[in-house]
Predict the structure.
Amino acid sequence: NRVNNPHPLLKKVTTPVKNDRVIGRYPWLFGPAGSGKSTLAHQVADALGLPFYSVSSLQQKYELEGYSDAVGKLVETTFYKAFKFGGIFCFDEASTSPAEVQIAFNTAAAQLLYNFPVEGMVNAHPDFHIIAADNTAGRGGSSTYHARFELDASTLDRYCFVEVDYTDQHDMYMADNDAEFVEFIKAVRVAIKAGNLTYTATPRASKATMALVKCGFSEKEALWMGLCSGWDKQDLKTLQNKIICPATNKWSKIFK
């Protein structure tokens, strides 16, 4: 529920979005999977009363700008609609798009003018705003998020970077206010890092686990399916030994 659960960074991101023409840069939200980046971008749109458009990991330029169909009519994209009519355009997984897409997008972002197929040159609507989101800050992959391009300096210079990390508020919301589960999932994250592993223990995993319990699965089945069913058995043993959680924590006992 975006309305009843505003992200703690909402004001910090909304302000530069409203003033991006003056600042000359756009927000780039970066942080781990499930930290609420896309939700935050959507909340900015809600706060400004603007339509929200989002794309993820475009691989071809036509996916961004559209193309001419068999009768010569422009097949419109979400980018075209946001650019021409106004709205928040969230470029999700921004560093996973190749150079062809990045160059086209950077041209539009820099000039606020773009040559679309069929229609030709279009000026950006005054209420067209960009928010980029990614697991990284555009400087190449990491051990956990390795499928990322390293963007050039001129591209990165168009953004102001805002780290979006896990928060207690978001963790509690996604875990259906189960403080014991939040305590456990935070301990799992610490153990993953200590073990130099590449798994994630995200708020989405918390939400899935809680939902599976409500669907009738046992807590053990729900934890397995919601969090770690794809993890290596040896890695699971490593994590069992590294998780530091109170002995009374129900979820830690189930995991071990």
